[in-house]
Amino acid sequence: MKTATLLAAASLATLSFAASDSEASGPPDSLFSGKSGEPADAPNQSGKQDLTDAELKAYDGSDPSKPLYLAINGTIYDVSAGRGFYGPGGHYGHFAGRDATRAWVTECWETEDQLTHDMRGLVEAMFLPKYMDEELSDAADGKAGADSSLGDLKDQAKKLVSKFGRPSRKERKRRREADRPEAEEKLEQALGKWVSFFAAGGKYPTVGKVVREEGWEESAPEPPAVCEEARKKRPIRGGGKLDAIMNMPMQMGGQAGVVQEDDRDEL
Ligand code: HEM
């Protein structure tokens, strides 16, 4: 993306996310909590219209006599003023009539199942750094996951592992724990930009909340894996001795093809 688009959207949102969310729609829900507000009723005590996911579908623009709604992070907005964007045939028409919070962050909307509010697994799939020494170690053991491009390079991986060493299970766990807070923050920021755009942009009135049963995730199927483009955004670190190599400038003999973390946004 489309950095320009994001920047444009962010600049439209003049208030900070926290402030805007509370002003626009009552007490702020924590991001991706799946909180649903009060039971569906139209309108509710605060004059807002809360809808279930199924009810929200009726406002996807296919009936021109109805307003056009979309939801993000559990809050519904009336985007009728943006029918060209969100109406049938519009560039962002797939966001209409649903809470597709996941897709706002991933930018994956090729398949219907990506258009969900379900944020489970996104921190791991897009924001938690991936370590090359772990990838190599797994590839050498034939354990490389679908994510890895090293699966076919078992022999080369073995050689590299004997040179650079293996991260222990304890070390892997330590990394996950140490990296998680920053990864969660990055996810909040990625979503917060869009939430602010709708909550504080002044263009689209808040309609209400999406009503979901408490504990909906227990009976919901696992959300889909993120698309390849989104997976590529995951930060990459060397890990152990590989850190030094990953941080080496290319002209100093850094490995061609190894993406340096600071460069990733530019690719
Ligand atoms: C190839 C990539 C993209 C292009 C060329 C593009 C282009 C545009 C253009 C030309 C506008 C209109 C700006 C204006 O009002 O003058 C726009 C608005 C917008 N774009 Fe994109 N965009 C892209 C990707 C994305 C992605 C990935 C998302 C969301 C995840 C997104 C979300 C939006 C939103 C929410 C608006 C504002 C619409 C409104 O005013 O309600 N765009 N984009």
Automatic annotation (TrEMBL):
The Cytochrome b5 heme-binding domain, residue ranges: 51-137
Disordered: annotated span: 19-51, 161-184, 215-267
GO cellular-component term (any): membrane
Native source species: Salinomyces thailandicus
Secretion signal span: 1-18
Entry annotated with the keyword Signal: yes
Short name of one Pfam family: Cyt-b5
InterPro entries registered for this protein in UniProt: Cyt_B5-like_heme/steroid-bd (IPR001199), Cyt_B5-like_heme/steroid_sf (IPR036400), MAPR/NEUFC/NENF-like (IPR050577)
Keywords: Signal
Protein's recorded name: Cytochrome b5 heme-binding domain-containing protein
Skewed-composition ranges (Basic residues): 166-175
Family: Belongs to the cytochrome b5 family. MAPR subfamily.
